[in-house]
Amino acid sequence: MKLIIGLGNPGKEYENTRHNVGFEVIEKIAKDNEVDFEFNKKLNAEIAKISRLNLEMGQKSHTKRPAILAKPQTFVNKSGEAVKKLKLFYKTTPKDIVVIHDDLDIEFGNFKLSFAKDSGGHRGVQSVIDHLKTNKFWRLRVGTANRKLSTARQQRTLKQKKDAVGGFVLAKFTPAEQAELKKVIKKTLERLAQTF
């Protein structure tokens, strides 16, 4: 069984922000598989169970393998707490976990699927690594970098830089970016379908 986890911040104010791109991808998978999320208090996550995972839009399930979709309701930087609970509860191994998250080192419109990599400075991913005590899990890294991020990174002081980058990841996608993001999500699902 695959445990597919989208990282994001809970709450309406964080919807459609760059840091919540993991939630957007996981919600698309749930929609395509016609399942709904339910909050599990014990696991502190919204959960959707899929008996036959379908990652290819408009086609029948390509696998008989079941999957659990999860949206941790911790904030991004504490995602590891919920991921550890999910792993133990569903008795999965790290190699059966896919974490989907935003990535500031990848240009918007692109993504990378990687295995056993370090966090790259992403505090949510570092939290997962710390709680699982391994980096041997899959990551679908969805690019969010653009010119605004480049400007934010050029601030003079470390505090200004942190504030500017923090503001960038918590900013909402523009309508044009939202339209492009739909295409990116479609490509990410095609890539997951080829891999799993």
From TrEMBL:
PROSITE patterns: PEPT_TRNA_HYDROL_1. The record marks N9 as: Discriminates between blocked and unblocked aminoacyl-tRNA. The active site is at H19 (proton acceptor). Coiled coil: none annotated. One of its GO terms (cellular component) is cytoplasm. One of its GO terms (molecular function) is peptidyl-tRNA hydrolase activity. It comes from the Bacteria. TRNA binds at Y14, F75, N77. The keyword Hydrolase applies. Its EC number is 3.1.1.29. It is found in: Cytoplasm. Its main location: cytoplasm. The record marks D102 as: Stabilizes the basic form of H active site to accept a proton. One of its GO terms (biological process) is rescue of stalled ribosome. Signal peptide: none annotated. It is an enzyme of class 3 (hydrolase). Keywords: Cytoplasm, Hydrolase, RNA-binding, tRNA-binding. It catalyses: an N-acyl-L-alpha-aminoacyl-tRNA + H2O = an N-acyl-L-amino acid + a tRNA + H(+). Belongs to the PTH family. Hydrolyzes ribosome-free peptidyl-tRNAs (with 1 or more amino acids incorporated), which drop off the ribosome during protein synthesis, or as a result of ribosome stalling. Catalyzes the release of premature peptidyl moieties from peptidyl-tRNA molecules trapped in stalled 50S ribosomal subunits, and thus maintains levels of free tRNAs and 50S ribosomes. Monomer. This is Peptidyl-tRNA hydrolase. It comes from Candidatus Yanofskybacteria bacterium RIFCSPHIGHO2_01_FULL_44_17. The gene is pth.
